[in-house]
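Suppose a colleague, Dr. K., hands you the sequence of a protein chain of 332 amino acids and asks what its three-dimensional shape might be. Before reaching for any lab equipment, you can write down a predicted structure in token form. Begin with the sequence itself:
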Amino acid sequence: NEKKLTLPLSSIFVGGGTPTSLAPPLLAELLDTLGQYRNEQTEFSVEANPSSITDQTAKIMHHAGVNRVNLGAQSFVQKELTALGRIHDPDRIATAWRTLRDAGHQRLGLDLIYASPGQNLDSWRYSLDQALALEPQHLSCYALTVESDTPIGRLRDSGEFVEMDEADQANCYNAAVQTTAAAGLEQYEISNFAAPGMQCQHNLTYWRNESYLGLGPAAASYIDRVRRTNKPDIKAYIRAIENDQPPPAESEKLTGRAEMGETIMLALRMTQGVDRQQFAQRFGIDPVEAFGATIQRYCDMGAMLMDRQRIRIAPRAMLVSNTILADILSEA
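The predicted structure, expressed as tokens, is then:
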């Protein structure tokens, strides 16, 4: 509901998917419409595939006020891109980058994937070096998640693809942390690195468990403690909008320890961790009092660090943070 929005918006994020694959007139209409709700301080992000960036799309985004573009590069090795089903080649990444720069875009980021089929530590280091040579303001490095009902999942299930073992994945992760630091990018979340002041403000909203509105099939929102996820049915979504009805969705209200647990879990993804004073102001209790068993156990192990101001996951334990986060939710 537009009346519930606090305008101008602090951030607008268009993606996932590839919004730049829209026909130019539709892309312009979409971005111009969203641009009505921004001002000069709004972070206006668009996700893009390198193959979808043309002179025209780059100019449309810049004209609409988009001030952050994130390219889904994934890899700079052709065989890895092919295995991932990507339609661009490594040269196209650099071409798209130059096109965006020439159109006036200054704040650019890249996504990379490690543990992809056929990848090893050397090829991962090569992709990191190629990405950082472009001097991005933001870099995301995600481990490949293999789902059974996907082309890669079926290859794995049939034995044609063997997932990278945990030790090699750890080496890839550590290489990302070390290489980005040497390039002047700070790790601010488990998988995300940014130049000073260039963190993705939209994603920080998620990790701080603050309110956001999601539009589109399968989009999620978190408003007034209610988590709402639209069903991934495009036809049903369109019918609802045409009939001035809310789209079909599933929702749950987070209260009490469930809300506290999710807030801690999300905050611990960030390298700065949980601000104890802010948490106490929000919930009326210190996080150590609320989740003392889990926090103390991992502090004793050296996997979590705690002082008067913050609680955070130790850098050496970031790669196994999912176990810690799951235990926080279990205690909640």
